Structures are given as C-alpha cells and as structure tokens.
Amino acid sequence: MDDQISSTTEDQKYLQQAGEELAPDEFIEEVSDFSDCKNFDMDDILDLAGGAKDAIERHRSEDQIMDIKNVKITNSRPEKEEAHAEAKAPSSQLWDLLYWRDVQKTACVFGATLSLLISLSLLSIISVCSYIALALLSVTICFRIYRGITDALQKTENTHPFKLYLDQDVTLPADVIYKHSDMLLKQTNATINELKRLFLVEDLTDSLKLAVLLWVLTYVGSVFNGLTLLIIGEVAAFTCPVLYEKHKTQIDHYYGLVNSHLQDVVKKIQAKIHGVKNKAE
Predict the structure, then answer these.
(1) Average per-residue pLDDT in the chain?
(2) Core vs surface per residue 38-67: b (16+ CB within 10 A) or e
(3) CA 238 to chain centre
(4) pTM value?
(5) What is the sign of the dihedral through the CA atoms of 276, 277, 280 and 281?
(6) What is the SS3 assignment for 173?
C-alpha cells in the first residue's frame, strides 16, 4: 500500500510538471479522456501519469532536435560567407588595381610589369632574369654590410637586418595548392573540350568564327610579336577600365551600334549557309 501511495505521489509530480512544461493544448489533450470522471481509481491515475511522462519526454526530444538544427544553421552560415568572401577577394583586388583605387600600389605594379616586358623585348629572358637577380642580391649584400659596419661603430648588438623576413614561414599550404590545381584542371578540361568542338565542326557557325579570328591573327602576327602584344594588352588593361568609367554612356552607345551591325552580318551569313544546305539537300 505504501508503495502504491509513493508511486501515486510521484505520478502527481509528473502531472504537475507536465502542466508546467507542456503547452496548454497538449496538457488538455493528455487529460481529456479523464475530465468527465469524478472519481479516479489507482490504475487511471497511473495511466494518466504515464501519458504525461511520454508527453514530457517527447516535448524535450523535439526541443533538443530544434536546438541541434539551429546550431547547424548558424554554423553553416559563417562558413558559406567565408567561402564567398575568399572567392570574391582576389577578383576585387584585381579590379582595384585596374581602376587605380590605390594610385601608389597600382603605379608600382604597372611600372614593374611594364619594365619587365620591355626588357624582355630588348634582351633575352636569361639576361633579364640574371640582371634582376643580380641587382636584388647586390642591394641585400650592400645593406647587410652597411648594417654590420654601423653596429660595429656604434658598439651595439649586431642583429641581422633581415631577421624578421628570415623567420617568416614562406611555405605554400597544401590546401591552397590543391585548390588552385583543381581550378587549373577544370579550366584545362573546359578548353580542351571547346577546342575539340570547334575543330571537329560541331557547330558550323562557331567554327567559321574561329577561322575568321585565326585569319585576322595571321595579319596581326606579321606586324607584332608576342611581347609587343603583351605590352599593348597591359597598357590597355590599366587604361581602358578608367576611360570606360569616365565615358561609359558614349562607349555603350557606340558599342551597341557596332554589335547590332555585326549581328546583322552574322544573320546574313547564317541565312546564306542554310540556303546552300537546303539546295544541296
């Protein structure tokens, strides 16, 4: 009898806990079967307490599942934002250089690359690389000797002037190598598939466009060599974006006129090609 009374009191505690933790609709649903009865026997009370237990456990498990889902969502959002920021960062830095956002940085990059290309057009690549490496080594050796002499005259501790740079880790991480190698592999495969499609004449119009482009390049190659084209391309890359930003309206207007004229010419050529095909059939 005492065991039954103690179990009854525990069941009443579960009933009270169910009323506190469950929503009103859930608690009413649990006790709706017994609401019309005036007298409860021991078995009815035990059944009601057991139902309340199950409802509490179900409610707690649902809350835990929702918490886990919320944690996963909140953790996945920063990872996606970081990946998007990493993918966007190199392109934004390149556009900042081309649009001269930082004049000093862009001037250094433009001057160094242009000087290198001009040097390669005048001298061999071996001579250019040797002169650049020799100049850099001469500067570092002279600075190292100068710092050693000044430290000896001032009787100060002789510290290496490039110690900060020597202690830096310049090894490339493996994940960066794998990332760029995967990108290079995708671009290479896409280029090979596109060349196969063009040279095996999957689409006659695209192959004719490539033939016209190659025919034009034969005349360009007879006038300019590869390095001259690279120099012209670099100058255009650092000047055309700025000019386009300043004269965007006029450039878009004339570009639309030229593009519409070219589309008309292409449509006429395609119509003639289809007419020749139909006659042959």
Answers:
(1) 75
(2) eeeeeeebeebbebbbebbeeeeeeeeeee
(3) 24
(4) 0.51
(5) negative
(6) coil
